[in-house]
Amino acid sequence: MVSQTLELSALELVERAKKVVSLQNKWRGSETINLIASENVMSEEATRLYVSDFMHRYAEGEVGDRYYEGVKFADEIEDLCERALKKLFGAEYVNVKPISGAQANLAVFYAFTKPGDVVMSFDLPSGGHISYREFGAAGCRGLSVVDIPYKPDSFEVDYEAFANKLKEIKDKLKLITLGGSLFLFPHPVKEISKIVGEELPDQSVIIHYDAAHVLGLIAGGQFQQPFKEGAKVVSSSTHKTFPGPQGGLVMGVSLTDKQISSLRKAVFPGLVSNHHLHRLPALLYVTAEMMTFGQSYAKQIVSNAKALAKALDENGFRVLAKEKGYTQSHQVAVNVSELGGGAPVSQKLAQANIITNKNLLPGENPRASRTPSGIRLGVQEVTRYGMKEKEMERIAELFRKLLIEKADVEKVANEVKVLRQEFQQIQYTF
Ligand SMILES: Cc1ncc(COP(=O)(O)O)c(C=O)c1O
């Protein structure tokens, strides 16, 4: 596939670009069951709003105080997005300029730490995301990262070890990041905030919550509410359980003017010049969808995730956290080490039109990220297409046929297409 030379003419390149888009739309857009936990699809109307003149423009600066002319509608849309999101999430400050969740994390680290400080977060097997760890924001900012002690068997923080660690590092600790990438159960924002508040009553440590995966569940009131539990800053993507355009945002409560100013400057001019304005009309539209349909959408997501986990378990798979009810989010984690591991299993599933990703599981060696034991599944996209508990059972049966009974891959791939054929229309929209 990858070649150093290019034998195609300019016209052939044009044809190829068109063909690739058409093939992608057909395959990933209508024939596959997508269980990647970090993706979603926008409604047709939001998608229409995504392509506009805004995609050619700049609006450096803040609403009402720009460095460019021609921005009256950019001002209007950015202002409406921020006000709508404040209302939806109970935030006092919202910044929609970050163009991705990773960039939003970087902005938070840039605003609230300086090189040499210490930050805490979950390591990757415990669900932490690379974007705020040593190779991500923390590394870029020259910070030392200390792991939040985690008990992989019970999916819980080891509070005693956490309190002891806190005493050791409190002089240099500036930020604690909760939230993550493998995210089956709410994180203990309240408990961590309480322990930190007792040890450091001067509020010198920011409790930061990365809501990238669960923003849509929070919007629909079906997951923890991080601001009410003690988080001061929430960063996120806008395209995972929140079914918006690919992008990012940062929100805050109880921040001082100085902290807001640091955050604003970290985003612009720190990290963005042009902030991809064409996202914003779609983001506003999806925010309105979530205000209207978010509760029923998020409820169905969680119910589907539980149903898929149970059905996979009943079909012979090692689903994590059975004793805790498997999941309270959109995600399901499965240990497939006996079937060859996360890499070959996810590849085989993709051949059968079921799209997933290999994933480290709690307690695994962080260095095993290319050969992990697990796969991570997310049901937010199939839910958006209208699938319910019954379809989760059908999906689990397809998993069994393919991976345990070793049925013919082509045959299963066709069955997946047939199932998907019934679910082409995006739901939970106006
Ligand atoms: C917890 C978490 N934070 C941040 C990100 C990065 O988000 P983005 O892809 O929008 O940069 C991800 C990506 O999946 C994630 O899982």
TrEMBL record:
Top-level lineage group: Archaea
Protein name per Swiss-Prot or TrEMBL: Serine hydroxymethyltransferase-like domain-containing protein
Required cofactor(s): pyridoxal 5'-phosphate
The keyword DNA-binding is assigned to this record: no
One GO process term, biological-process aspect: tetrahydrofolate interconversion
Modified sites of kind N6-(pyridoxal phosphate)lysine: 240
Key words of the record: Pyridoxal phosphate
CDD domains the UniProt entry points to: SHMT (cd00378)
